[in-house]
Model the fold of this input.
Amino acid sequence: MEWKVPLFEPDLGSKEKQALCDVIDSGWLTQGERTAQFEREFSAYIGSAHGIAVTNCTVALHLALEALGIEVGDEVICPSLTFVATANAIRYCGAKPVFADITSLQDWNISKPTIEKVITPKTKAIIVVHYAGYVCDMAPIMQLAAQHNLKVIEDVAHAPGASRKGKYAGTWGDAGCFSFFSNKNMTTGEGGMVVTDNPGLCQRTQRMRCHGMTSVTLDRHKGHNFSYDVVEKGFNYRMSELNAAVGLVQLEKLKVGNERRKEHVAYYRACLSGSQNIGLPFLTNDSDAAFHIMPILLPETADRVEVMTKLRDQQIQSSIHYRPIHTFENYREQGLGASEDLTHTTVVGDRVLTLPLYPSMRNEQIEQVCDALIKAV
Ligand SMILES: Cc1ncc(COP(=O)(O)O)c(C=O)c1O
Done:
């Protein structure tokens, strides 16, 4: 399909190409010095002491959970209105995802009151997701976690560079997990990062990323070590130098890209504000958001497939973020989400529609999308 307005468009160019050529010329493709530089520069940007680059955000979440000691039989609270990776990562540990409802039809993030309702004696951690790039109300969540001795992991896949009260998303909890998948605000193709201020957690995460080994291949290549020991459970979750090199270029573009997104969201809101039956979430969110996607709430009476089809007829791509996780067959079969009250999540899951959003969009394109949407609705 030739889209006139695609859902997203990555911002890739000659600098990324050159960075990839430089890596190939260097003769070292696996985790090495560029990865270390990407970790330093990304974590410094986010305001975190340490960054651990990994293969993607799904394994970043798994690694963070493992390194924080989540194990079989534990419960971990997360939203159901998120990409399935958030809950899958919990299941990798043999733990049970327990879903907290979103706060309201205006605030689609989980929050202290919705988390509090699903805490049990088995709860060990919370994964918050900063949906669409709007930062959760973290101060009360951190207070609640401290009261119940719970670990907090932030799924920051949508929110690189977002902040709330001057503190960046990813630096509130014990660990923050980022995605550099193709459609994210910055991309390395596939890629992820764990950030943390805790040096012990950083060391454990680094070791677990590479088979639980005490040295990595580059150390041995450089003659720093002849051998290694394996001191804990481990995985191969390393990032390659190719991904890291692209990440360094993309990081330079993040701030401007997020500013463009903010302008586009403001224009969308202005174009749609006259249409009372189209719901615009997060209008009262007071974070400095990363504006990853542009979700709207369709009126109860609208047929979503029909609306998406009418947009497609005009070569406008749209999507759904998300079908709630607890409604997927495999989750239902396991009884996951069966006992939680997910009233608001269900409404949003039924009526959410995601409109195109990316930095290089033009105002005429936003007008086209809004005209087509209003007519379709
Ligand atoms: C909220 C959220 N969490 C986790 C992920 C998983 O990221 P990755 O594709 O890098 O594994 C995504 C990716 O789309 C996401 O949107």
Observations:
- The chain is about 40% helix and 15% strand.
